[in-house]
Design goal:
By secondary structure, the chain is of the alpha/beta class. The chain contains 11 helices and 19 strands. The strands form 3 sheets. It has an 8-stranded parallel beta sheet. A 6-stranded antiparallel barrel has the order 10-13-16-15-14-17. The chain has a two-stranded antiparallel sheet with strand order 11-12. Helix 5 links the parallel strand 4 and strand 5. Bound molecules: pyridoxal-5'-phosphate (PLP). The site of pyridoxal-5'-phosphate has 13 residues, from strand 9.
Length: about 375
Amino acid sequence: MDHADLTTWLEIDLSVIRKNIRLLQEIAGVPVMAVVKANAYGHGLIEASRAAVQAGVQWLGVARIDEALELHRAGIRAHPIVLGYTPPERAGEAAQAGMRLAVYDSRVAQAYAAQAKAVGKPLYVHAKFDTGMGRLGASPEEGVEWMRWLHTLEGLQVEGVFTHLAEADDPQKPTTHWQLDRFDALLSGLEAAGLRPAWVHAANSAGALYFPRARYNLVRTGIAIYGLNPSAHAPLPEGFRPALTWKTRLTSVKIFPPNHGISYNYRYRTKSDERIGVCAVGYADGFRRQMGNMVLVRGRRVPVVGSVCMDQCMVNLDQVPEAQMGDEVVLIGQQGNDEITAEERAREWGTIHYEVVCGLANRLPRIYVE
Ligand SMILES: *Cc1c(COP(=O)(O)O)cnc(C)c1O
């Protein structure tokens, strides 16, 4: 497809997302919660969620209640669960839409119960424990008593218990086993007290792949379903593929004379006669304003020169003299025999690839292919 009507866009292969999820289901041997927060890591909340449901997913993990409501409004047939904090003021909406909320604080839990009673619908909750992430969660050591109390709150249905791993993407570190030992101690206590809920989950993508003991009866996988490695220390097994390609186009090709300034503040000057292309992508799309970016034109790597502007940037095309206005430029993905991965973009930008894909702006058209 040539998408001649577009200047910068994302191509997302939903069949790749489905295949990645099926691989994960096989490897983990338990149901997969597709984590689709942050617009499905830039891939598009609704479309990625539909693909996940087609692959058999029944749980969709989000960070905020508004993401869960969007799924509800789109009529997606899977349980959205809000993994982060939800203000009690919104618990009535959550109960009405049948979504699941994380709960870890007593006062908030009481307020949730009151809201659920007010709307006359049970609110399903998953109790979140902090076994070592240093973020949200109740204390696992006091967990049995707390869960006993939670069960007494009319209006709440305690459906799950979960925790989150801090260093599963570095499998050599002992942290994950230490966290899981604490979680297992809590689970034994709950079991003995007859309080173990139906669903128990702990693993993110790296946890699901590298720590079989972390799988329990549900894994919460985000990065892996999009075909991206959890980290360099925790790569995906064979068979996974990235679902997303980011493209733009050359909107101009011109030869500039030597010592000609390029872009704002002339942070780059031509050294000789230089063939300079303009790309229709800028920092407002999520392409960082940073020197030293490389992109692919006609299967070859070319440098971005001068400051990246809000909506455009310039490239030196001396290595690709045949390049023409209208040519596709690849920012993430394959072109010809070369590929720029989200990981490589992240290294260039001094961050991790999670941030690169989550930073893909909403204004970028997302084209879904199969
Ligand atoms: C984001 C998130 C995940 C998914 O993590 P990945 O590393 O992308 O698999 C799982 N659980 C929680 C609580 C999260 O916030």
